[in-house]
Amino acid sequence: MNIKRILDVLLLPKTLYQKITDKRPSLFLGIILVGIMDMAFILTYNDSYRKFFWAKSQSTLYFNITFTACAALILGLVDILFFSLPLFDLFKFFKKEGESRDSGATLIKVMKIYILANFLILPANILSIVAEKTPGVAANTALIGILAFLYIVVNVWLCAAVTRGINSIYNFQLFYRRMVFLFVYLWNFLLGSAFQYIILHWVLALYK
């Protein structure tokens, strides 16, 4: 298996990214699914789902379920929009080869690339959560180190997939193509840190 085929498996084929359209229904579906994933990971953090959904009164349970559905939709929108829009604005300043006009259609494609990348790393995220919840892992320093390394690898994987997708739909000059990963990784790190703070200190605090 050559490098191109390996990259096609790990980061998805370039032709797949190039086939992405600017149709909105699939974007809305992606926002909902990413929001569901975000909420699922949030509620598994420190077993929060036990605190919010177990041994609750009917009214409290109804509120928490409704709030979870609304929060999933909002978080999905915020996650995708706040990741994609600043990068899209940045890429307007990158020099391109040939004619490539930025538009709302291109922004939608950037959003969909981010959505695809989130689905690509989903199995690894699930595996890390299962491993973290396995009895005995928290007391094993070596396993904690492995999980921390896996977390870094998954984030690099996500950014690499987004970079491949962006370079597939933009005609950047070679220098700028090489710079895309750096900007994607830095922005993902900053946004992820802010996103985590908001979730832990604001979103979870709204549950009953």
Give me some keywords for this one.
mainly alpha; 78% helix
Q: Please give the domain count.
A: 1
Q: What shape does the CA trace take?
A: globular
Oligomerization status of the protein chains: single chain
In helices, the fraction of residues equals over 70%
Which segments are poorly predicted (pLDDT under 50) over 5 or more consecutive residues? Answer: none
Number of helical elements: 9
What distance lies between the first and last C-alpha atoms, to the nearest angstrom? 53 Å
**What pattern of helices and strands is seen along the backbone?**
HHHHHHHHH
Largest sheet: none
Global mean pLDDT: 90
What does this entry look like structurally?
The protein has 208 residues and is mainly α. It has one domain (23-206). It is 78% helix and 0% strand. The chain is built from nine helices and no strands. It has helices at 3-11, 14-18, 24-44, 48-53, 58-91, 104-120, 122-133, 141-169, 174-203. Helix 3 (24-44) runs parallel beside helix 6.
Provide the fold topology:
Elements: H1 3-11, H2 14-18, H3 24-44, H4 48-53, H5 58-91, H6 104-120, H7 122-133, H8 141-169, H9 174-203
Helix pairs in contact: 3-5, 3-6, 5-6, 5-9, 6-8, 7-8, 8-9
Briefly summarize what is shown.
This protein is an all-alpha fold. It has helices at 3-11, 14-18, 24-44, 48-53, 58-91, 104-120, 122-133, 141-169, 174-203.
